[in-house]
Write a structure and sequence with these properties.
By secondary structure, this protein is an alpha/beta fold. The protein has a single domain, classed as 3-Layer(aba) Sandwich (UDP-N-acetylmuramoyl-L-alanine:D-glutamate ligase). The chain contains 8 helices and 14 strands. It has a 9-stranded mixed beta sheet. A hairpin with a 4-residue loop joins β12 and β13. α1 packs parallel to α7, α5 packs across α6 and α7 packs antiparallel against α8. It is globular and about 55 Å long. The model has no long low-confidence stretch (mean pLDDT 93).
C-alpha cells in the first residue's frame, strides 16, 4: 500500500527550548506535506549549544520499545532520517532499524552529526566516529558538513579546501555506500564571503554546487533545517540539484530573517517566519554543474 502522505521516521533528539533537531525537523517536513513519526533519542530541557545546566534524559531503552511496537503494527515508512545520536548503542539501534524497516522504494538519509570547525561535539569520541562510519554505509544519502566529511575519511581538517579535493571527498564517501553525498559548509579556497554546498550523484557521475552569500552570524540547528528541507523536497519528487537549491535558499532566508532582529543566537533562527516559503513552487534555481 502506498501512503497517501509520505511518512518519515525521524530519529533525532528533542529539546524543550531552542530550535534544533525535532523542533525543526517536524514543522519543516510537516509544512512540506510529509508525515513525521518522531523516534526521540533523548529529551533535553534545551539544546546544548550556548545553554548551561540543561537536563538530559537518555531514551535508548525507550527507543527499543517504540521500535518493537512499530514492528508489531507493521508500519511502513517512505523514508528513514537520522540525525544526532548520543552513543554507539544508538547508532547500532538505527542501523538495525534501517534493516528491519527497509523496503524497495524507501529513502534512507543519514546526517552524521559529529562536530564542526574541525572538532567533535562534546560526547563524541573515536568509538562514535567509528560507529558512524558503519552507519553511513547503509544510507542512500548522507549530509555531513565539511568537518564531518574529514572525520568519516580520516582526513585532516583544513581551513580552506580546493574544489578538486571536495570532489575527491564526495567520491570517496560515495564509495562507502551512499549513492548521493552532500557536503555542507565547504570553506572553498579563494572564495571568501560565500558559503558552499557540494553534492555528488554516483548514478550519473555528476557533481553539483550551490552557493550563498555569507552572513556574519552562526546559529544552531541550521544543519537540521537544511537536511530536513532536502528530505522533504526529494520526497516531493524534486531532483537532487533542485532539492539542494531549495534547502540552501530556505536556510539563507531563515538566517537573513533572523539576523535583523538581534535575538539571542543560541535560540536558533526564526524559521517560523519563513515556513510559508516551503509551500510555494520553485521559481529560482542557482545550482551549478561542476566539471
Amino acid at each position: 500500500m502506498t501512503n497517501p502522505v509520505p511518512r518519515v521516521a525521524a530519529i533525532h533528539d528533542l529539546s524543550g527550548f531552542g530550535r534544533a533537531s525535532l523542533t525543526i525537523v517536524s514543522p519543516v517536513l510537516s509544512s512540506m506535506g510529509i508525515q513525521v513519526c518522531p523516534l526521540p533519542t533523548s529529551l533535553l530541557s534545551t539544546h546544548t549549544s550556548g545553554f548551561a545546566g540543561y537536563t538530559f534524559l537518555d531514551l535508548t531503552e525507550e527507543m527499543r520499545k517504540v521500535i518493537r511496537h512499530w514492528k508489531e503494527l507493521n508500519i511502513e515508512f517512505d523514508a528513514v532520517y537520522s540525525g544526532f545520536l548520543g552513543s554507539s548503542d544508538q547508532v547500532g539501534i538505527v542501523s538495525d532499524f534501517i534493516d528491519s524497516f527497509r523496503n524497495k522504494e524507501q529513502l534512507v538519509v543519514v546526517d552524521p552529526v559529529m562536530g564542526d570547525d574541525g572538532t567533535t561535539y562534546g560526547p563524541y569520541g573515536p568509538d562514535m566516529v567509528s560507529a558512524m562510519k558503519e552507519l553511513v554505509q547503509k544510507a542512500d544519502i548522507i549530509t555531513p558538513n565539511y568537518t564531518e566529511s574529514c572525520f568519516l575519511l580520516d582526513e585532516p581538517y583544513r581551513e580552506e579546501i580546493t574544489e578538486r579535493d571536495v570532489k575527491m571527498h564526495l567520491q570517496r564517501l560515495s564509495e562507502r555506500g551512499p549513492g548521493k553525498v552532500v557536503i555542507t559548509s565547504v570553506p572553498l579556497k579563494g572564495r571568501k564571503g560565500h558559503s558552499y554546498v557540494y553534492a555528488y550523484d554516483k548514478a550519473f557521475n555528476t557533481f553539483w554546487r550551490v552557493s550563498c552569500s555569507y552572513i556574519p552570524a552562526s546559529y544552531p540547528g541550521t544543519g537540521d533545517m537544511f537536511t530536513s528541507v532536502l528530505v522533504g523536497s526529494l520526497l516531493q519528487g524534486d531532483s537532487l540539484p533542485i532539492a539542494l537549491d531549495r534547502a540552501v535558499q530556505f536556510v539563507s532566508l531563515a538566517i537573513r530573517s533572523t539576523f535583523g532582529y538581534g535575538t539571542p543566537r543560541r535560540e536558533g533562527v526564526l524559521f517560523e517566519k519563513v515556513l510559508y516559503s516551503l509551500m510555494t513552487p520553485v521559481t529560482v534555481s542557482n545550482y551549478e554543474v561542476v566539471d
